[in-house]
Every structure is written in C-alpha cells, then in structure tokens.
Design brief:
Radius of gyration: 16 Å
Mean pLDDT: 89
Number of helices: 2
Number of strands: 5
Order of helices and strands: EEHEEEH
C-alpha cells in the first residue's frame, strides 16, 4: 500500500519559465488529487485555511466542474501529520463553491458516496 506524503515542505513544480511561451502567459496548473471510476472523475484540490485558489487554477477547476463526468472538491485542511479537514466545498457546474461538510469523518462519507455513485455508472 502506498504511503501518503506527509511533508508540508515538499517541492512543487515551478512553471515560471513557461511564461510567454503561449498567448496570455498561460502556464500549467495542478490538482492535488484525481480519482477515476467508470469514466467518472473526482478532482481534489487542497488549500490550507486562508489560502486562496489562484485565478488560473480557479478557471481550470471551473472548466472541469462543467463536465458531466467531473466532480470538483476544494478541501481546506492539510495532511502534514494526519489528515485534517476544516471544511470541503463542491464546485457547481456554474463555478459556485457550495459548502458540503466539515471534518475528515464527514469527508470519508462523501468520498464513499462518490465512489458508490460512480460504481453504479458502469457502461
């Protein structure tokens, strides 16, 4: 079984040298987690409490949320020493964040429900 990364000082890819390569200075963005089941995707974006989603990342996450097979969740918390979730928000297809729960126990239930729904979506 793979171990979760528990290093808050883990490095991230620096795309600053990509600026100017294509119009509008567009540079790659990342997501913190993605899960696929039967063509259904769950996108997880983690932010520390008070941390903002960047404009480019917001645009990307909103675009993904409009896709019928994608569910986008923004989680406020961390996995530094243990999994701590202050709150999590579902991004609607219109791009509006809707508070969906508080705490890791609540998120576990949400996660399992997503899987059950995706599992029932067998083609």
């Amino acid at each position: 079984m793979a171990k979760l990364m528990r290093n808050m000082f883990a490095t991230h890819t620096d795309y600053s040298e990509f600026k100017g390569l294509i119009p509008n200075n567009a540079v790659p963005s990342n997501v913190d987690g993605i899960l696929e089941r039967n063509g259904q995707f769950l996108i997880l974006e983690w932010k520390r409490p008070g941390e903002k989603v960047s404009e480019g990342q917001r645009i990307m996450l909103q675009a993904l949320a409009t896709k019928p097979s994608f569910m986008v969740v923004i989680i406020y918390g961390n996995t530094d020493n243990e999994t701590v979730i202050d709150s999590y928000w579902l991004l609607t297809p219109e791009g509006k964040p809707v508070k969906s729960g508080i705490g890791f126990e609540s998120f576990k239930q949400f996660y399992r429900q997503w899987y059950e729904l995706a599992d029932g979506n067998k083609k």
